[in-house]
Structure formats: C-alpha cells, structure tokens
C-alpha cells in the first residue's frame, strides 16, 4: 500500500474499468491511507486539482479535475478535502478503519436528521471514522452544499470525508452502506403503479451503480417508497451484491407498534419486545401481536381486549403518520431518521438475547412459507456483523396467516407491475386499491 | 418520600404557593418515584384524571385535570404519562437520577434537531434519564404534540417524561436546564431596538418564571436573538438564580471559526484549539486568532497571512449563516442544534487539559477589564459539574483590545435600550447600525 502515500485517493479511483469490483476493493483500502495535501499535490500521471474553499464567491462544490478523464470527477467538500492522518489514529488502536456511507436524497429532511446522527458516532459507534457520500439531484445540489457546510461547522471528529454529487456511479464508489432515501413524491392523481414505475426506475439505476462501484458486500437500506419493491428492483439490478444485503425499512412501523402496545398495556415502551412487522410497508403490513411480548409475557396475556388487537391496533400504527402530518404540518422526518439509525444499529450490534427486530429482506429460503423472490418484512436477529438470520421460533394462527397472505399477494402483484425493471419481461399491473400509508408520499 | 408511592407527581405539583422553591425541590425528588397507574388512580384528595391516548380523535394534549384548582394543570404526553419504575433502575446504580430539561421554541426547527439529541443520550450521557418539558406558543401547540408523538415513536429508553405547554410557569417547573430557543423573528423594517424590545419582553417573562418555579441552580442557555442582551434581561428577572448560570450561545460562531482556521491552515479541524469568541453574538463579535492554536502552535505562527487573519477571517465566520441560507434555503438549524449540544457538553464534561471553550456569560468579576453587568462571550473552562471558571491565561494586543471594546460598547448600548426590562429605569436607545449576523432573524 506504499503506493498510496501522497497520491490522492481520488486519482486512484479513476479506473481503467469502472466496473471492476477488485479494483474497487483496492481503492477502499487505499483511501484510508490518503494524505491529501491541498497545496502541494504531486504532479504525477494521476495529478488532480482540488479546490477547497467555501466562500460564497466560490460557490461550486470543490471539484477534483482529472487530467486524463474529465468526465470521472470525484467531489469533496470544503474542510473535508484537507490533510488528515487517520492511519496514525487507526494504528494506535483507538479507531477502527474508516467506512464509507452513501446516502441518497441527502438534501431532504430525513437525511438532514440522519447525517448528523451518523457523523456524531451515534450509529456506528464512537471509534468508527466515517466518510459520507451524499447523492442529490441537480436541483438539490446547492442544498447539498449547504448540508456539507453544516457538517463542516459541526466539527465531528469522526467525520473525515464528505463528498457530494449527482451521479450514483461516483457517489456510491466503495460505499459499505447505502441508505437510499431519495424518491420522487407521488404527483396529484398518480396511482401506486405510476409511483412504482417512476421510483422503480431510480432504484434500478441505483442498483446498477451499486453493483458497479460499491463495496461488494455493501449493505443497502431502502427508505424511498414503495420501499419493498424498490428494494427488490435494486437487488435485481445488482447481481454481484448478495441479495441478502438489501433491506426495506419497516422499522418506523415496528417502533410505532411497540409504542401503541405500551400505551394500551399501560407500561413504558422499554417493556415491549419481539414485535414483528410482516410484509409490505403499506396498509397491508401486519404488526404481529401474536408473537410480541410485554414484560416477557405474551401480549395476548397482558392485553385481553382481542377486538382492540385485531381491529384497532394495526390501524393506530398505520394512521400515525397521517395524524402526525395533520399536527406537525410535515411528515415525520425526525422519527424516520431515528428508525433508520435503529435499523443500522440492529445490524451492527448483537441482538439482545431472546429479542428480535424486523426488516424487509429477500424471501428466498425463508422458513415461513412466504413466496420466494420478493422483499418482505420478517423477524431477524444479528450477531452485530452487519448480517442477520431469520428467526425460527415464531408461531402463526389463522388470523396472522391470512393477513400475511394478503401482504404477500400485494407484493407479488407489485413485482408483476415492475417486471420491466427487474429483467423479468413485460409488466402486468393488477394492483389492488391505494395502499400507501397515510402521511407518506 | 413514602408519601409519593401511588400518588401522581402531577398532583403533588399542585402547590398552595406556586412560587415556593422549597416545595419545588420536593416535587423534583418525588417525581423520580412516581408510579402513575393510568387505570386505577387512587382517589385521594390529590386525585387527578390523566388521558394518555394519542389517536387522532383524542387530538388534544392529554391533560391532568385537577379537582381543586382547574387553572394549574400539568400536561404530559401519550406514552410518557405511563407507569415506569425508574427508581429501581437508579437503585441498581445503572442510571443517574433523572433531570428535567426545559426547551422553549420547542416546535421550531432548531429544537426539532436538539430534542432528539437530548433524548438519545448524546448530550447528558447514556446513563442519564431525561424529562423533557417543552414550551411553545398557542399557535404551535398542535405542532408540539407532533414533536411529542415523534419522541414517543423513537422509543428512547432514557426519555421518561415529556410535558408540553404554553405557560412557562408550568413548563419550567423543576427544570435543571432551560434551553431558551424561542424568539420572535424580526419583522420587515424592524430595527434592532425593536427586536430587543419584543424579545426582551419574552425573556423578562421567562426569567420571572424560571425564578419562580425552576430548580434554584438551573442552568440557562439563551439562543433566541439578540441572545446576549436577552440573557441579561433573563438573569435580571431571576434574582434567586445565580447570574453565573445564564449563558448566551456563541458556540456556533466558535465552531465556524475553528473550521475556517482549519481550512486556511490546511489541517483537519480537530487540530484547532483555544478559540474564543469575544463579545456579542452580532457582527461586533471578535473571533480571537491571537490566543487560538493549531497543532499546539499559535495561529500566527501557522497562518502567516496577517491580512487574512485581520480582515477576512472574521468576515468568513460571520457570513457563514448568510451563505448557508442562500444555498440551503433555510437557516442552519442542524448545526445550531449541534452547537447547543457542544455548549451543554462543555459544561457537563471536564474541559480537555490546556483547552477552553467560549460562551456568553455575566461579566461581573471578569479578569479582562470588560465592563461589569453585561453578558459577554469569554473563554471558560469547566470541571464538568455544570459550572465554569473564566480562563486567566489569555493575552491581548491593541488590535484585540480595540475590537473587544467595540463589542463591549455595543452591549452597553443594548443594555441602556432595555433598561425598562431589567428594572433599571427608562430605556434610552442609541444603538449603532444593524449588527444582526447574516442569516439570523
């Protein structure tokens, strides 16, 4: 790795084959050792010019201009273009090896909460240096610069790199985590099928980009709606990345379900465990009270009101977003960001003994008899290594089975509707009515 | 404290004298032991009705209706009205005694970032249970409920109580920290004198309320502008609280100054230390490069460009907010919230050896020859006990002296302008031109 000394990693990222995952891997390792000097870049074949000032006059994002391939540029921002010696801190054993976290929709409100949590160490731990790679649209590029400026001004010691850009093939380079929040909101009168198509196209493109340039074991969390099918489209377009690595976020639903069970039982929410959201992040989702526990007891032993459990509980969980918009005047960006943090932490810290969490994952090999080849929220446990296994010790009754079936049917219908985006032929759309959750776009 | 068992603390808060700080103190202690039962409240003289559901139908904030004094109500929110046994967790030694943190302007964007940081444990530590007491205006009450709902859905284990309200005499009860963010924005054509008057009135009222009902050693951080003089007004109206406990937030300016010095020197921001913001949080503020250090060396040894230090540096720090609004389209809520976190953490964790932080504090007894009886940003160190001492080892030159003098003159003029709010006679306003920082309201 001696080659990396005094050579900007950005120039090393300029690959003869952009799609070589081997090279991508090398680049990840090298970037930890980079020591960019703003003033005295070595004039080698790989030389680059980096602008790092942040005055209003020099308003454009600082750009790495690469002599021999002007198209492939790597953008860094302000103070994050500067010299640092992270290697020394890694060698003392006080810090882990830096990881790259890519975030799409990075100029939006959810990301505005999430990025500062990631940079603070709250998500990956106080010894984990972070590189943030922020993806936005052309329209949001100025706002992305604003976000980068606020991250600069926050002086987070763990935040070592911030890159911003509009091309997923650049922004996703070497990403070990991809948090895909960006999605087009549903226009007036748009059907779910229309939304599936416009956002499906975005997620197909981002899947291809991840496949080409991200770390080969990147973990992907899809937040943009309709998130289950977006995640399916994304993984189908990224055949070199394990399908198991793709998640659709149902954690906010799980958190809301825990809160509602706590309220009904009259206990604090830390006493509620083993809550699963089954299925699609839509109104067909199934918050599972059959397997959930309160103070270690079955929910049905604690909450005797079966009518409430079967009829009101799910509705309360699902209407939460709508009530919130009504009160707060905007969607629940802060608690969505918290639930993304929870979803990541559940994968990077060992699951507490006896408990589990739920996340939308690929169904192949599932032990529940759920149709294969869709992304379905199911109960999982993790050793804290970024991976997970499905929980086997769950029970079903006819009520739970029938509701899971309905969500499964919906996801199979959504899948037929995006066949053109998953490489499986011609799309046929026979979706049921509008199943968007209230308060979501 | 046996009396507290099974008696709602809310009913104990109903005092014969609302202004007795002794009683206030008792109530704080009792509230740790409270075990509210939603369904079977004891029907004593102190009995109360508490509504805890959060459906859209029951849209109002749950209200404690007190039989014998309907005016004095204590509002809790949703799941935070429920049973918990914090005492048991305190007794095992795993958690500290709960503290109450009051926040004004709680429905605004800065608070929307800050509250989740406080609830997560990032500010006061992972073993510090928190009660949040949120103050809003009548107009923002619905939004406050939305904030409380999102806090519920975040399932933070340390967050044990959330109260919302519009009356500072209720919301500030027993507060050990008061983070005063709420302020009226400057209307079109309004002079600084006008802003001083309308916001000064708010801070006079809140000072009186803190004096009456907060913990006698409450720490107060004023964020609402013009924050130095607002803090002065607040402390003058709270004679029972030590004047030393009041702070005006200049930490965002300090963070921005560190970032700009890092950029200019071409080093990462963690190498910059001993930065002071002197004076008013306005364009007369003085970012001090004479005492600041980079990699342990005097800034002037590292940055030889004196013209940049004397002319451009301060401007870059001060124009940051304006550039940010231009790019991001709104003011810097996220990094302001981060700087409030930094300001609190600087008081509750020991200052690193040899370094310091700056905060706007009461000038009486200062060793720098700055006029007494104003709130002025100065360098401080803390043992981590919530208190601080002014740093003696600072040097001055004519340039620094003259600039500090200008900010001092401005604050003395602001003080004359609010004499009617500090109990010092008739206001005389002879303020210089507009010294609001760009990007602030």
UniProtKB/TrEMBL annotation, chains A, B:
GO terms for cellular component: chloroplast. Its EC number is 1.1.1.82. It catalyses: (S)-malate + NADP(+) = oxaloacetate + NADPH + H(+). Its main location: plastid. Keywords: Chloroplast, Disulfide bond, NADP, Oxidoreductase, Plastid, Transit peptide. It comes from the Eukaryota. CDD domains: MDH_chloroplast-like (cd01338). InterPro entries: Lactate/malate_DH_C, Lactate/malate_DH_N, Lactate_DH/Glyco_Ohase_4_C, Malate_DH_AS, Malate_DH_NADP-dep_pln, Malate_DH_type2, NAD(P)-bd_dom_sf. Residues 101-247 form the Lactate/malate dehydrogenase N-terminal domain. GO terms for molecular function: L-malate dehydrogenase (NAD+) activity; L-malate dehydrogenase (NADP+) activity. Residues 250-420 form the Lactate/malate dehydrogenase C-terminal domain. GO terms for biological process: malate metabolic process; oxaloacetate metabolic process; tricarboxylic acid cycle. SUPFAM superfamilies: LDH C-terminal domain-like, NAD(P)-binding Rossmann-fold domains. The keyword Ribonucleoprotein does not apply. Homodimer. This is Malate dehydrogenase [NADP], chloroplastic.
